[in-house]
């Protein structure tokens, strides 16, 4: 079974073309998230003719304040890919007016994605988990991945009961809070993410080629028979992309 990385900012790496080659050579399924519709074109173009890279259309919540008008472009492009991200809400250090715009944009994105059965979302939820779960609602028809979840266990349980996946990165496996969260996620709902280049290990920015480290750490934390757990987690990516 092949490795996967469901949240990687390919376009923000210093050498994206080189990384594309490495991903193809290493055969790692990669969801290449983008932070705005304009970047999506670039990622789509460098991922063209690749087997393992899936460009995702995004509008990052922390950029919505200044770029909310790009929602129009976002909706126009929504047919081009079934992968959507990075999207979501971030209420960590924004004025209320900014957060309100984020909610408006996120509602529009979710309403548009709900017109399809097969969208796969990678979602940012920092300090906004309750609002985010409310907007997604109980009946969202696509698949949802909560990326770098850092909220309450109660909201995590709600997300898990809805069948959402939680993508885990290196930083989460190293922090006490992250470990508590990992403890609560059933093995069949865990995915791997690098969140490169925002996470580093020593001097190295995380890339899809390093997700094996995340998987090894998860096995230690879950105190589980390595091969069995590894197979379950790697299988989860195939479940994520499987047709309904
Ligand atoms: Zn990200």
Walk me through the structure.
- The strands form three sheets. Strands 4-5-6-7-8 form a five-stranded parallel beta sheet, with helices on both faces.
- The model has no long low-confidence stretch (mean pLDDT about 95).
- The chain has a single domain (about 5-240), classed as Alpha-Beta Barrel (TIM Barrel).
- Helix 2 links the parallel strand 2 and strand 3.
- Helix 3 (about 60-65) packs across helix 5.
- It starts with a strand and ends with a helix.
- The protein contains eleven helices and ten strands.
- With about 240 residues, the protein is of the alpha/beta class.
- Zinc ion (ZN) binds near residues 7, 9 and 195.
- The site of zinc ion has 5 residues, from loops.
- This is TatD family hydrolase.
- It holds the Pfam family TatD_DNase.
- Keywords: Hydrolase.
- GO terms for molecular function: hydrolase activity.
């Amino acid at each position: 079974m092949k490795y996967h990385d469901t949240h990687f900012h390919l376009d923000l790496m210093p050498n994206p073309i080189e990384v594309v080659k490495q991903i193809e050579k290493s055969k790692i399924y990669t969801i290449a998230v983008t932070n705005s519709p304009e970047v999506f074109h670039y990622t789509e173009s460098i991922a063209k003719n690749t087997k393992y890279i899936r460009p995702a259309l995004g509008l990052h919540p922390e950029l919505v304040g200044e770029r909310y008008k790009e929602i129009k472009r976002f909706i126009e492009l929504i047919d081009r890919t079934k992968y959507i991200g990075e999207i979501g809400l971030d209420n960590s250090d924004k004025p209320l007016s900014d957060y309100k715009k984020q909610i408006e944009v996120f509602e529009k994105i979710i309403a548009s994605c709900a017109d399809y059965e097969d969208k796969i979302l990678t979602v940012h939820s920092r300090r906004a988990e309750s609002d985010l779960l409310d907007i997604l609602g109980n009946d969202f028809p696509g698949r949802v991945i909560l990326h770098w979840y850092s909220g309450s266990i109660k909201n995590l349980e709600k997300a898990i009961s809805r069948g959402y996946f939680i993508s885990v990165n290196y930083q989460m496996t190293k922090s006490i809070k992250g470990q508590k969260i990992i403890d609560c996620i059933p093995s069949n709902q865990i995915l791997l993410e690098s969140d490169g280049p925002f996470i580093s290990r020593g001097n190295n920015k995380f890339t899809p080629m390093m997700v094996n480290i995340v998987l090894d750490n998860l096995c230690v934390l879950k105190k589980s028979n390595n091969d069995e757990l590894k197979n379950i987690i790697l299988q989860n990516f195939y479940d994520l992309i499987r047709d309904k």
